[in-house]
């Protein structure tokens, strides 16, 4: 399952950046990073993650909460999304879109 993890740092000071770097150097994520995009203003970014178990993203990112605000959501590919919509299944995450249930 793919996840999009959007993050912003709690602080952008030099000391906070050093603390974040130290944390990341000692962290072993329980999921695979597929892509990472940092914001040009250095105030966060987005990571695309893949995990076999949907619970790995929330559990595996707990250590980062000390330095980052994280929002992670499961993502579906276009084919999976269209398939679910054709079959009339409720697809979580689409409720906020115009016309979605």
For the termini, the CA-CA separation is: 23 Å
DSSP E strands, number: 4
Strand content: 25-35%
In the CATH hierarchy, what is the superfamily? ACT domain
Spatial order of the strands forming the largest sheet: 2-3-1-4
- Total domain units: 1
Q: What is the CATH-assigned architecture?
A: 2-Layer Sandwich
Indicate the structural class. alpha+beta
Q: Would you spell out the secondary-structure blueprint of this structure?
A:
Blueprint lengths: L1 E8 L4 H12 L6 E7 L6 E6 L5 H5 L7 E8 L2 H9 L15
Antiparallel strand pairs: 1-3, 1-4, 2-3
Provide a descriptive summary of the structure in words.
With 101 residues, this protein is of the alpha+beta class. The chain has one domain: 2-Layer Sandwich (Alpha-Beta Plaits), CATH 3.30.70.260. 26% of the residues lie in helices and 29% in strands. It contains 3 helices and 4 strands. The protein has helices at 14-25, 56-60, 78-86; strands at 2-9, 32-38, 45-50, 68-75. A 4-stranded antiparallel beta sheet has the order 2-3-1-4, with no helix packed on it. A hairpin with a 6-residue loop joins strand 2 and strand 3 (45-50). The model is unreliable at 90-101 (pLDDT under 50).
Task: Sum this structure up briefly.
The protein has helices spanning 14-25, 56-60, 78-86, and strands at 2-9, 32-38, 45-50, 68-75. With 101 residues, it is of the alpha+beta class. It has a single domain (2-75), classed as ACT domain (Alpha-Beta Plaits, 2-Layer Sandwich).
Protein traits:
Alpha-Beta Plaits, 26% helix, disordered C terminus
